Amino acid sequence: MGTLDGKVAIVTGCARVKGLGRGIALGLAKAGADLVVTDIEPGGTRNPFEAGEAESLAGWKGLESLVEELQGLGQRAVAAIGDIGSKDDVERMVAEGTDYFGKIDILVNNAVAPHGDDRDWIWKVPEEAWDKVFRVNTKGTFLMSTAVTRHFLEHNVQGRIINITSISGRRGYPQRAAYSASKFAVTGLTQSMALELAPYGITVNAVSAGPMDTSRSASRTARAEQSDEKDFVAASSLVQRLGVPEDIARAVVFLAEPGAGFITGESIIISGGELIY
Questions:
Q1: How far apart are CA 86 and CA 255, in angstroms?
Q2: Which of 1, 9, 142, 233 is the most buried (most CB within 10 A)?
Q3: Can 179 be counted among the known catalytic residues?
């Protein structure tokens, strides 16, 4: 018996083979949850710095492959394609999930804007790059959360909302202004929603991830052509390594479990000790 047997979770941003979304979905499935996995495209998005990156599993087909993996673990799973920055797409994806499973118990807002022109000195960041980051990271979290919250309230579900944010949402970093600001906003949204939804038995928390060994970190190294950057970042954590998707998945599963009902409005830092409060 898993701690999440009988629960249904929807996770955004799941198509990358070496991404947090896939890791979170697998972690939830191993705990017994059925899954709705989403992304804007069946294979996920890439930025120009990842153009030549080969997927690390031969034959990976994005959400299609992930659904097969989840089913191989004995769980039901379905893919939903859509743009979390679009209200129409969000409402359709949530409806597809509830139509397929009859309910949703857990929402994990994981999708994030890819690296782009926002990663620059603030006076050089184009307005459209700033808007794109906020459209995905902040507006997308807002739209998904409110759509699923309406389902929780309508069906009296004491659900869980878990927002994947970043230590950049707890402390600013140079050349990360748009990203940091968008993630600070998600931290504030998490706290406000926790206050509003606590009377209904719904908890809202965030997981603030430190440097992770994912496709995004691979693109960062490729862009800067710094083979030593990975080692430098790993050395900045007390445990002397980068995080992996499983590290985040374990925190998400914990917050999704019935026993975590006394935890809400929190932002749990998973950074290997790089950021300590």
A1: 27
A2: 9
A3: yes
> Residue 170: phi, psi to the nearest 5?
-120, -20
Beta carbons of 86 and 147 less than 8 angstroms apart: no
Question: What is the value of pTM for the model shown?
Answer: 0.89
Element (H, E) at 27: helix 20-30
Provide the token pair at 141: 């979290």
DSSP lists the bridge partners of residue 162 as 108, 205
Tens-place pLDDT, residues 58-74: 688 999 999 999 999 99
| CB-facing half-sphere around the CA of 183: CA atoms within 13 A | 25
The three-class DSSP label of residue 100 is helix
CATH 3.30.420.40 is the classification of domain 8-270: no
How far is the C-alpha of 10 from the C-alpha of 230, rounded, in Å? 31
Instruction: Give the whole-angstrom CA distance, residue 109 versus residue 145.
Output: 8
Q: Give the CB-side neighbour count of residue 66, counting CA atoms within 13 A.
A: 34
pLDDT of residue 231: 57
φ/ψ (deg, to 5) at 47: -105, 170
